[in-house]
Write a structure and sequence with these properties.
The protein has twelve helices and ten strands. By secondary structure, the chain is an alpha/beta fold. Among the domains are: about 80 residues, Rossmann fold, CATH 3.40.50.1980; about 120 residues, Rossmann fold. It has a five-stranded parallel β-sheet with strand order 3-2-1-4-5, sandwiched between helices. Strands 6, 7, 8, 9 and 10 form a five-stranded mixed β-sheet that branches. Strand 6 and strand 7 form a beta hairpin. Helix 5 packs antiparallel against helix 6 and helix 6 packs parallel to helix 12. The termini are far apart. It holds the Pfam family Peripla_BP_2.
Length: about 290
């Protein structure tokens, strides 16, 4: 008698897969609900400054995922789920977050995909001023149940700034060039939180009239800055400093006032790192 190969119909296999996947999603959904009801936050941060802020707020125990640039979380071996611009949605989903902190540069399609998975996603744009840094920090604090801690840090920050202002003895405003890129040369311009470093330092931004930060060396030389600050770009920072030193007629060069700042501090918009950077600048700008 002839035996027939009996293969399960394709529709049956598909149905079984859908049922199993549905059970998995149902389990994940109810587990997330239980976490929410118990007040157990599971946070994925897609922005280094927000990750750092969670540590300042003593909320790092809720952090389950972050980007490859989140230095604050390195020692805690937090799962890396993203570069700065491209999150790995599959990795994020396996961590079962109930709050994802995204940047304004996170692709909107990825944001919508996460929301369709019933994940709360909150987006933060890059702050345009020191005041916006504070307001966004408070917003984050309220979001993670650390509002009082956020207000405490903001109060300390304002008090520190008042002390720095009292020590201001400058009669005239020095001209400052703040460089944040090497190829092309990119200057800090108004409408950015880094421009507030210059203002609160008591200086004048030589790029204050520009709408785009790309400049040439001839522009900087013609404005004759009294101080030049360069954000760390690896070995390129010292190379940039050496190139500026070739323009011996510039006041910043004649008076040996070229300084390199750490990008992990200066470029990170948090209340704490803002004051740290401003303090470093105030120590040399007199």
């Amino acid at each position: 008698m002839e035996q027939h190969n009996r293969r399960p119909p394709l529709l049956l296999i598909s149905a079984i897969i859908l049922i199993v996947f549905g059970i998995y999603l149902s389990f994940e959904y109810h587990k997330r609900q239980q976490d929410d009801e118990a007040g157990n936050l599971r946070i994925v941060s897609l922005m280094p400054s927000l990750t750092q802020s969670l540590y300042y707020l003593d909320a790092q125990k809720s952090l389950v995922g972050c980007t490859s640039y989140c230095l604050a979380a390195k020692a805690d071996d937090i799962e890396c789920v993203s570069s700065v611009l491209k999150p790995n949605l599959e990795k994020i989903a396996t961590l079962r977050p109930n709050l994802v902190l995204a940047s304004g540069m996170t692709p909107q399609r990825d944001v919508e995909t996460l929301r369709k998975l019933d994940v709360r996603v909150e987006q933060f744009d890059s702050p345009k001023s020191f005041e916006q840094i504070l307001s966004e920090f408070l917003r984050l604090g309220e979001m993670v149940g650390r509002a009082e801690r956020a207000r405490e840090i903001i109060g300390q920050t304002r008090a520190h700034l008042r002390l720095l202002a009292l020590s201001d003895t400058m009669q005239t405003k020095p001209k400052i060039f703040f460089q944040i890129g090497a190829s092309p040369i990119y200057a800090v311009i108004p409408g950015t939180f880094m421009d507030d470093y210059i203002t609160l330092c008591g200086g004048t931004n030589i790029a204050r009239e520009l709408s785009s930060g790309i400049v040439g060396r001839e522009f900087v030389v013609s404005r004759d800055p009294d101080y030049i600050f360069i954000v760390t770009m690896g070995i390129a920072a010292e190379e940039q400093a050496n190139q500026w030193r070739q323009f011996e007629q510039m006041s910043a060069v004649k008076n040996d006032r070229i300084y390199i700042l750490d990008s992990d501090v200066a470029c990170l918009p948090t209340p704490v790192t803002f004051v740290q950077t401003l303090e470093m600048m105030r120590e040399v700008v007199r």
